[in-house]
Amino acid sequence: MQVHTPVWKRTQFSSTLVRYRSAIATHLRRHWFFNLVQFGAVAWAVVWWRHLPVPGYAIGVLALLAAVMSVHIEAGMLRWQKAFWMLLMGAFLVIEFRAINKDRSDYAKVEEDKRKVERDSFQRIADGITKAINDSDTNFSITMAKEDVVLDTTKKVADLSAKNLASISGQDSFPCIVPQSHAASNTTIPLFIWNKGKNNLTGVELRILSIQEFISSAIFFKPPVELGTLPPTWGKPLPEAISPTLGPDGTAIYQIEIWDQTGFYTEIVHFRRGKYALPWAYKYWLTKHVIINTNTTQSRLVKGCSASEWSDDLGDGKPATEPPS
């Protein structure tokens, strides 16, 4: 069965359609300029989306669209048109961001290419300089090879001369007298003289003065004992031993005067009775005297020949605390 639409409904639909058509026509007449701008902006955005412009162009178009939009608002813009304007301006804003990123990337690439060219140029210059230096070094090495033989021979002669000079002068060597308490008797103490150093001591002479002889006229008349050359390998026993005469304080003091090619020394030796197994204990120190001028003499203790504590206090002659293993 066929259903017929009432005449009054068909008439109402036709009237509504006519009103919409009239409204659209009126809108197009009133907003033709703005519609044309939007259409052009869409086309422009499509082109720039594929081919990005120079940074700043898209933001300029965005500002122009914002100005046109403000005029369109005054002319009675619809809601959907406002949304369309916002989409257009958002599109141009994204295009501007992409253009800025592309420009920065292109600039970085150009700078990197420029630096690469500069590096290559500097590398070529450096390679040239290196080659010139290597050639110069080769020529110099050839020239100096002959000189090295002469210099090596000269150095050997110089080292030998320095060694001979040190041996003759007794450089860095000094005499040191040590009492031999383990070989001492109840009345006599033998003495041993050592060369503390690496070079020979020549012309060694010495004399031993007790404190009584030192303060009497015997200091001027007692002759020295000649020992000759004192090598650094082993010491020598002195031909004169000491028989200490203890003073009121229980000690005996001796001054030993020593001469060699390095200068003049005095060694002070103290003796007292030992507290343990050995009959005598001792301590000593050596002083070197250097003449600065006719009125000045400088004296200094020699560290390599000194025992400022009594020998038995340092363990000499003490009985063993436990049997050897």
Structure notes:
- A hairpin with a 2-residue loop joins strand 8 and strand 9 (296-307).
- The termini are far apart.
- It is elongated, with a radius of gyration of 57 Å.
- The mean pLDDT is 81.
- It is an alpha+beta fold.
- The longest helix has 91 residues, at 79-169.
- The chain has helices at 7-30, 32-50, 57-74, 79-169, 211-214, 218-221; strands at residues 174-179, 191-196, 201-210, 225-230, 236-237, 252-260, 263-273, 280-293, 296-307.
- Helices cover 49% and strands 23% of the residues.
- The strands form two sheets. The protein has a six-stranded antiparallel sheet. The chain has a three-stranded antiparallel sheet with strand order 1-2-5, with no helix packed on it.
- Helix 3 (57-74) runs antiparallel to helix 4.
- The protein has two domains: 7-106, no CATH class; 174-307, Immunoglobulin-like (Sandwich), CATH 2.60.40.
- The chain has six helices and nine strands.
Strand content: 15-25%
Q: Helical percent range?
A: 40-55%
Strand order of the largest sheet: 4-3-6-7-8-9
| Domains, number | 2
* Protein structure class: alpha+beta
* Chain-averaged pLDDT: 81
Please state the overall shape, judged from the principal axes of the Cα atoms.
elongated
Number of strands: 9
Radius of gyration: 57 Å
CATH class (first level) name of the largest domain:
Mainly Beta
> What's the total helix number?
6
CATH fold-level assignment of the largest domain = Immunoglobulin-like
Q: Could you describe the largest sheet, including whether it forms a barrel?
A: 6 strands, antiparallel
